[in-house]
Amino acid sequence: MGEKNMETTERLQKVMANAGVASRRASEKMILAGLVSVNGKIVKELGTKVSVSDVVVVSGKTLDIEKKVYFLFYKPRGVITAASDDKERKVVTDYFKNVEQRIYPVGRLDYDTSGLLLMTNDGDLANKLMHPRNKIAKTYVAKVSGIPANEDFKKLRLGITIEGKKTAPAKAKLLSSDQKKNKSLVSLTIHEGRYHQVKKMFDAIGHPVEKLKRETYGFLTLDGLTSGEYRELTNDEVLHLKNK
Questions:
Q1: Which of 54, 94, 110, 124 is catalytic?
Q2: 231 in helix, strand or coil?
Q3: Whether residues 126 and 179 fall in one domain
Q4: If we measure between CA atoms, which residue out of 73, 65, 191 comes closest to residue 83?
Q5: Residue among 2, 35, 31, 37 nearest 14 (CA)
Q6: What is the pLDDT of residues 53-78, one digit of tens each?
Q7: Residue 147's CB: how many other CB atoms inside 10 A?
Q8: Greater model confidence, 48 or 124
Q9: Do 224 and 124 belong to one domain?
Q10: Which stretches make up the RNA-binding S4 domain (predicted)?
């Protein structure tokens, strides 16, 4: 307990409130009632401060008091969306060596897909964002073989049956095309997250993906970042995600 070298300390009731135990006022009452222990000792002093290395137990349940952090990462191509890889390939957490918290990606992007990826240690928020009911729109820009026709875009917009299941309606449009090279740049916005979904949708219309990038995730964009860079989300951005 008390002040820790090189560690941030916060009042116990605030830590409890942040961990979702109860409101700060209700947490104070629990402390005074002797329901909280720190490092094995009952604490009844409201001025007590704790850090992430302290073990806080409330009514028999140990609290996770690691500070929650949230990052927007521009994932490069050729990087695994995982915290580690048994083949020793580069993973997304390699870009966060200076972050002391144990963070992990929210969802995934394929090895050869670049773009916007959220990284956090907030499991509750990550699970919420990945749940199908939230229908978060994600926009991808794909370089595809050939030049899709209007009929192809209509199929993407209405939904395509992949492996026996129809995709939800999507937004799709042609950004540019190169007649000589027979290539196109296409924008596709979906809110599902099925395995290899974007690639399979373009395969289904006969225009396989050659290069893929996720440009947006809900209201978040890659503005101001280059490949391999990241930034912390603002408090307003975090609240917006939590309130979705």
A1: 110
A2: strand
A3: no
A4: 73
A5: 31
A6: 889 999 999 987 777 899 999 999 99
A7: 16
A8: 48
A9: yes
A10: 10-71
